[in-house]
Design goal:
- The complex is a heterodimer of chains A (471) and B (220).
- Chain A has three domains: 3-161, 2-Layer Sandwich (Beta-Lactamase), CATH 3.30.450; 210-315, Orthogonal Bundle (Helix Hairpins); 317-465, Heat Shock Protein 90.
- Chain A contains ten helices and twelve strands.
- Chain A has helices at 3-60, 67-80, 108-113, 156-206, 221-276, 282-314, 324-342, 359-376, 422-427, 434-444, and strands at residues 88-92, 97-100, 120-125, 132-142, 145-154, 320-323, 345-350, 354-357, 382-390, 393-399, 449-454, 458-465.
- In chain A, the strands form three sheets. Chain A has a five-stranded antiparallel β-sheet with strand order 2-1-5-4-3. Chain A has a five-stranded mixed β-sheet with strand order 7-9-10-12-11.
- In chain A, helix 7 (324-342) packs parallel to helix 8.
- Chain B is globular and about 55 Å long.
- The two termini of chain B are 15 Å apart.
- Chain B has two domains: 3-117, Response regulator (Rossmann fold); 124-215, Arc Repressor Mutant, subunit A.
- The chains are: A alpha+beta (471), B alpha/beta (220).
- Chain A binds chain B through residues 255, 258-259, 261-271, 273-274, 276-279, 284, 287-288, 291, 294-295, 422-423, 426, and chain B through 9-13, 15-16, 19-20, 32, 54, 56, 79-81, 100-105, 162, 164-168, 208, 211, 214.
Chain lengths: 471, 220
């Protein structure tokens, strides 16, 4: 059963129970008090009549003995007083009727239960007419005895009223149940709306769509639950995203690696196949052999670069204090011939300073950055290597006036095998692993690469190194 | 003359394709990016395009979407060997899919097959008095039909496609029997002997010491 229905039924049960108990009690109490009042009125009436009758009898000197002789005269007298408007019966103790305006016989049972000093009453239902009557009886004192007076009061209307009340109450109950259930259903529907929406979102999440979020519309427990749920969904989405990114990078790396491996292999196998099949003229044979050589070299570069990438990624650096000024000068000296060959001027400006790190790796880092700067530069341009001492480390900056890197490529250039200008990079003998390697080396020395570049204006690479962190 | 457009950004591979296809008697043109290729296709009519998938700018798959309505046969040449890449290439409308690294003989055979499917090759190959009709697969010598088994016929075609090129026994085995060479050369030798005998080509199909056989054609 749905929660909405549960809430509705529960509330409805409570409503019906409380309304019916309340109404029943109310009707009963009011009936009881009305009955009490009617009984009092009936007895009072009897008292009044009794006292009046007694007064009349005493005034006329009526005694028990001559009562029968008086009966007619008394009746006339009575007819002149207000007693005439009331119905009653007077009889002797033995049950002999003296006077009666009642149509029913005397009630011996009631009469025998009273004496000359007490009054009494009894409530009876007339079996013929189904009317409820109160019989009251009391003594009328005469000088020589006692007469008994009986009065009857019809209190049927009390019972019919109660019946009517019950009837009305049933209709009201029906109405309350109808309207109440509608209102209850609507209210519980409103209350459970956030739960349902949360349920839908959970379902979507379960089906692998991590973007939807629950609506937080209140500060109550459900709102809190929705907020917590959203936090959880965010965390899951982030994790999944990271996993997917990692998987994509892995896949990209593999695809690129396969491409980089197969391309030179294709050339080597193809040209070798051509050579062994013979029938090539001198120039073609030379071309084929040159390609086999250059593509073989390319494979060698690739394997060397991959090796160093793997080694850097998986080994702790051999940490020693490195003289950075000397290291920069050394790197400048190594790359100078290649720079000169291309007609690019190299300027090295490094402050004296030392850094805890691996000298060989740091040299590879500087050489790679200088190499990239050289590849991007046209003849006649300048490459600048600057080393500065920082409060906690050393900053290297390599600036060139070369091609520049388009803004949308900047985020990808440190990915393995990524090349901004593939044909140019290929012509320079690059495998697309240099910056990936630099990034690893920088990370090992608690630093990272930052690129500022403008197309056709040049690129500045900044590395702030903090040195190897001792474990 | 059949014109083939080679779209490949790796210079060595472009040259390799160019050299081997030119040697096989095709006319080749090389381009190194997708944009230039799209322009060239609009200006000129090509009989076949060899297309690399990983190209700078527009990649091969994107270019294929542009080429598909032009009804030019396309063969993809790529390092991507994943099945989903092959399926993608073929679904885009490519006629074949060659995975790097490939062998020259395989390349030539596939090019030949695609061209034949488009009826761009000459259906009659003539050498001396031997005529091969590649449509009906009928071989005649001096007008008289010669009955060849399927393997012998494929062997003959392989020789005719690789004139003056020494074919290794393993290459012949892989091309004709379409199996990996298991080191048994007697099957190849036996079929070459029977082909020589049937066509009277004892001199033409020369044995190359320790290598295999070569179809010798003097004036090419």
């Amino acid at each position: 059963m749905k929660f909405t229905w549960k809430v509705t039924f529960t509330a409805l049960c409570i409503l019906v129970l409380s309304v019916s108990t309340g109404s029943y009690l109310l009707i009963s109490l009011s009936f009881q008090s009305a009955l009490k009042r009617e009984l009092a009125v009936a007895q009072e009436e009897m008292q009044m009549l009794r006292i009046s009758y007694e007064a009349v009898c005493n005034a006329r000197g009526v005694t028990l003995e001559n009562v029968n002789g008086w009966t007619r005269a008394l009746q006339r007298t009575l007819e002149e007083t207000y007693l005439a408007d009331h119905q009653f019966r007077v009889s002797t103790q033995a049950g002999v009727q003296v006077y009666s305006t009642l149509d029913s016989g005397s009630d011996q049972e009631l009469l025998s239960s009273i004496d000359s000093l007490s009054t009494g009453y009894v409530v009876r239902q007339d079996p013929r007419t189904n009317r409820v009557l109160v019989h009251c009886a009391g003594p009328v004192s005469l000088p020589d005895g006692v007469l008994y007076m009986e009065t009857v009061r019809d209190i049927s209307s009390l019972f019919t009223d109660r019946q009517i009340h019950y009837q009305v109450y049933r209709w009201i109950l029906l109405l309350v149940v109808g309207a109440g259930s509608a209102v209850m259903f609507f209210l519980s529907y409103l209350l459970t709306m956030p739960i349902r929406s949360l349920g839908r979102v959970t379902n979507q999440l379960a089906q692998g769509d991590y973007t939807p979020r629950a609506r937080v519309s209140s500060g109550d427990e459900i709102g809190e639950l929705a907020a917590n749920f959203n936090r959880m969904a965010c965390a899951i989405e982030k994790n999944i995203q990271e996993l997917e990114d990692a998987a994509r990078r892995q896949e990209d790396f593999t695809a690129s690696f396969v491409h980089e491996l197969k391309t030179p292999l294709t050339s080597i196998i193809g040209y070798a196949d051509m050579l062994r099949s013979g029938n090539l003229d001198e120039s073609r044979r030379f071309k084929a052999a040159s390609y086999i050589f250059s593509e073989g070299k390319r494979l060698e570069n690739l394997s060397l670069a991959l090796m160093s990438l793997l080694v850097v990624g998986h080994s702790a650096a051999d940490a020693k204090s490195v003289n950075m000024a000397r290291l920069c000068a050394e790197a400048g000296r190594i790359s100078q011939p290649a720079m000169r060959k291309k007609g690019v001027e190299l300027i090295v400006r490094a402050e004296e300073g030392s850094l805890l790190g691996d000298a060989a790796l740091l040299q590879t880092l500087i050489l790679n950055l200088l190499d990239n700067a050289r590849k991007a530069s046209d003849p006649g341009k300048t490459v600048l290597l600057v080393g500065e001492v920082l409060d906690s480390g050393y900053r290297l900056t390599v600036t060139d006036q070369g091609q520049g890197i388009p803004a949308e490529e900047l985020s990808k250039i440190t990915e393995a095998f990524y090349m901004v200008d593939k044909s140019r990079s290929r012509a320079e003998g690059g495998a697309g692993l240099g910056l990936a390697l630099c990034k690893e080396i920088a990370a090992l020395h608690s630093g990272e690469l930052r690129f500022d570049s403008q197309v056709l204006q040049g690129t500045t690479v900044t590395v702030e190194l903090g040195g190897v962190k001792c474990a | 003359m059949i014109k083939i457009l080679i779209v490949e950004d790796e210079r060595p591979i472009a040259d390799l394709l160019d050299m081997s296809l030119t040697a096989a008697g095709y006319c080749c043109e090389c381009l190194d990016n997708g944009v230039a290729a799209a322009d060239a296709v609009e200006k000129q009519r090509y009989d076949l395009i060899l297309l690399d998938v990983m190209l700078p700018g527009i990649d091969g798959f994107e270019l294929m979407e542009f080429l598909a309505p032009l009804e030019i046969p396309v063969i993809f040449i790529t390092a991507r060997s994943a099945l989903k890449d092959r399926i993608k290439g073929l679904k885009l409308g490519a006629d074949d899919y060659i995975v790097k690294p490939f062998e020259i003989a395989e390349l030539l055979a596939r090019v030949e097959t695609v061209l034949r499917r488009y009826h761009k090759t000459e259906s009659r190959i003539v050498l001396d008095d031997v005529v091969v009709d590649t449509q009906s697969r009928v071989v005649t010598k001096a007008g008289a039909p010669i009955s060849l088994t399927a393997k012998e016929y494929n062997l003959l075609l392989l020789f005719l496609q690789n004139k003056n090129i020494a074919l290794f026994r393993e290459t012949i085995y892989e091309r004709v029997w379409e199996n990996d060479y298991m080191g048994d050369s007697r099957t190849v030798d036996l079929h070459v002997q029977r082909l020589r005998k049937k066509l009277g080509w004892q001199e033409r199909i020369a044995a190359v010491y320790k290598v295999g056989y070569r179809l010798e054609v003097k004036d090419s």
